[in-house]
Structure formats: structure tokens, C-alpha cells
Write a structure and sequence with these properties.
Order of helices and strands: HEEEHEEHHHHEHEHEEHHEHEE
Number of strands: 12
Radius of gyration: 22 Å
Distance between the termini: 46 Å
CATH topology of the largest domain: Rossmann fold
Structural class: alpha/beta
Number of domains: 2
CATH superfamily of the largest domain: Vaccinia Virus protein VP39
Largest sheet: 7 strands, mixed
CATH architecture of the largest domain: 3-Layer(aba) Sandwich
Strand content: 25-35%
Shape: globular
Number of helices: 11
Length: 351
């Protein structure tokens, strides 16, 4: 299994005997704090007092190197306690795992410090798309904020493909929790234009009702992100294939299911795997001259997408380029991502 295929469900749990082995000192208890995409996080309470944080992560995920590099970068930041310590020992249950151990101390978290330390590239995005980013920075988590910077950074390289018009209508298909709605709205509003555009943006997600740990459904989170993004942004729980959208200026897909295994891993029924129909529907929704934007996780997915688009009448691929943004801390694990842009023929009349 590759590092991109390893998920939290593949990782062993950290029990009391494992914690004793790791720390080599008596342990009172182990408490699960939560999970990430490819990690599990625990608080270990010592019998003689004190606690440690343990992050169980896949071997080769890059987490260890990122923890060290980020703490080195923020070492002089007064909000990051200097007693943070990072080291690695093999997890006793699996040779495929590493454990990152950190001292559990009061004060701002590592992500909170990163939240307030945008790098030069982030500052550039602030200058270009700053309307609303300050509010997102103040009210969102560091993860959501950086994800929006990542999306903006990736899209900004292709802003010249946006239509030169005062208003734009767009669809984002497969929006999940729509946490990046602010980024899409700002790109559509400000990208490659002297005057801000009026934006109507709908996020569409077929699987909007799973309930998160906080008791709220995915749709609840998405609607909150839509409100945060600004006027004209909505979230719709529906099947895009059954929608009747027409005359849309821009249709976006972030990581669509073009290979069956990806749909199965997400947990959707097999009947929803219809990538050819999905992109024919997208082309039908676009107005003549409209723009299609697709981001794939891997080269395999990108090549399959190109096969699908080649069979869609009226669509012409404009360009395809790697997504190289470093705005998220996991960027070195997603180096195969590709953004493809295609346009519906301007003289292709609707039926």
C-alpha cells in the first residue's frame, strides 16, 4: 500500500502496553484525541505526572519531517513553547508506522501559530484576493484557512481562462463540505479582472448528510462555509446528473471519481460511478464558450480524464498543469495532482 493509499483506518490503535514501550516509563492512561486523514492522535498520561501527545502516522508520510521543519521555522515564535520535542520510534504493533511524540504543554497549538504566519506566497494571495480572507483567517481553523489558500494558489495560475464579463455563474460539483467556498468565490470575483465580478456560485454534493463528530451534518458545515464565502454562494444536496443547470460560465470538479476504486473508498454505491455521463452533463450545463476546471489526484486519474473529455462533443482541452502549491502542510504527499482546463466551443449550440 502506498503512502497516499494509507488511511487512518489502516493504522493500529495505540494501547496502554504500546505507550509503556514507547516512553519506557510507567503510563497511567491513553486517551484518543482524534484522527486525521492519515494519522491517529493520543494523549498519554504518565503515572508520575505529565503528559505526552503521540501521533501515529504511516511510515513515509512525511509527517515527521514536517513536524521538525515547522518547529524549526517557528522556534523563535513566543507562542510556540520551546519545550516541544519531536522524535520517532517504531510503533511496536506495525513496521509500517511511525510515532511522533511531543510534549503536551499549555499554550497555542502548532497550527494556531502557523495560522498567524502566512509565508510570502500567502501574503501575495492576500494582496490579490484579500477581500474576505481576513475574516476567514479570523474565524476558521488553520486547516480550512490553508486549504483555501491552496485552492486560490492553484487556480490563480489559470485566471486568464476566466470569462471577461461583469458577472459569472459557476458550479462546483462534488463539493464535500465546501470548506474552500471562499477561495472559489474570490477567484471567480477577482481573477484576471480590473473590476470585481458579480458571482453566483453553487456547490453541489450528492452525499451531504453524513453526521460529523460535532453532531452537525456535512450539509450544515457546507452551508456555514457558503455563508462565510459571501452573497450569491449556495450549497445544494443533489445528484448533479439529475440537475437542470444551463448556461453556466464555469464548472469545477475537485477530485472527481473517474476511477471506480476512488468511489468505493469514499463509500458511495457503485451505481453513482458514471464519469462519462458526469462530464457530458457538465458540458451540457456550460454555455458556449464556458470553462471546465478539473483537478485530479494522480496521473492515472488525469489520463483517464483526458480519455473521457476527448469523447465529449464540443469540449476542447486548453491546458493541463501540475498543482504545485505548497500552501498546505501535506503538499509533498500530493505531487501527482493535475489541473485540466477545457472550454466548450463558442459555436456549439445547445439542443
Amino acid at each position: 500500500m502506498s503512502r497516499l493509499e494509507t488511511t487512518k483506518d489502516d493504522l493500529p490503535s495505540l494501547g496502554l502496553p504500546d505507550a509503556w514501550t514507547l516512553l519506557r516509563e510507567p503510563v497511567e492512561s491513553v486517551t484518543a484525541l482524534g484522527t486525521g486523514n492519515r494519522s491517529r492522535v493520543y494523549r498519554i498520561t504518565l503515572r508520575e505526572g505529565g503528559t505526552r501527545i503521540a501521533r501515529v502516522t504511516a511510515r513515509g508520510s512525511g509527517r515527521v519531517e514536517r513536524e521538525r521543519a515547522v518547529r524549526a521555522m517557528l522556534g523563535n515564535d513566543p507562542r510556540v513553547p520551546t519545550v516541544h520535542e519531536v522524535f520517532v520510534r517504531d510503533h511496536p504493533l506495525s513496521s509500517a508506522c511511525d510515532v511522533v511524540l511531543m510534549r503536551d504543554v499549555p499554550g497555542e497549538t502548532l497550527h494556531a501559530a502557523l495560522h498567524a504566519r502566512p509565508d510570502a506566497a500567502a501574503l501575495s494571495l492576500w494582496r490579490q484576493f484579500g477581500e474576505g480572507l481576513a475574516a476567514l483567517h479570523a474565524r476558521s481553523s488553520a486547516e480550512v484557512y490553508r486549504e483555501n489558500l491552496y485552492v486560490l494558489d492553484a487556480l490563480d495560475a489559470h485566471a486568464d481562462c476566466l470569462p471577461a464579463q461583469p458577472a459569472v455563474r459557476a458550479l462546483d460539483v462534488g463539493s464535500k463540505d465546501f470548506c474552500y467556498a471562499t477561495a472559489l468565490h474570490r477567484w471567480l470575483r477577482h481573477g484576471h479582472t480590473g473590476a470585481p465580478r458579480a458571482v453566483q456560485l453553487d456547490g453541489i454534493e450528492i452525499d451531504g448528510h453524513p453526521v460529523y463528530r460535532d453532531g452537525y451534518a456535512r450539509a450544515d458545515h457546507a452551508e456555514a462555509y457558503a455563508r462565510e464565502a459571501g452573497d450569491g454562494v449556495r450549497y445544494r444536496v443533489e445528484d448533479f446528473l439529475a440537475s437542470d443547470d444551463r448556461d453556466v460560465d464555469v464548472v469545477l470538479f475537485w477530485y472527481p471519481f473517474v476511477l471506480r476504486y476512488a468511489l468505493r473508498r469514499w463509500g458511495l454505491p457503485g451505481r453513482h460511478f458514471a464519469p462519462e455521463s458526469l462530464f457530458r452533463r457538465a458540458a451540457d450545463a456550460l454555455r458556449p464558450g464556458g470553462l471546465l476546471v478539473v483537478v485530479n489526484h494522480t496521473q492515472e486519474e488525469h489520463l483517464r480524464l483526458r480519455e473521457i473529455l476527448a469523447a465529449v462533443p464540443g469540449l476542447t482541452v486548453l491546458r493541463a498543469a501540475p498543482v504545485t502549491s505548497a500552501m498546505v502542510d501535506y503538499h509533498d504527499t500530493v505531487t501527482e495532482r493535475v489541473m485540466t482546463l477545457a472550454r466548450r466551443s463558442a459555436d456549439d449550440e445547445k439542443d
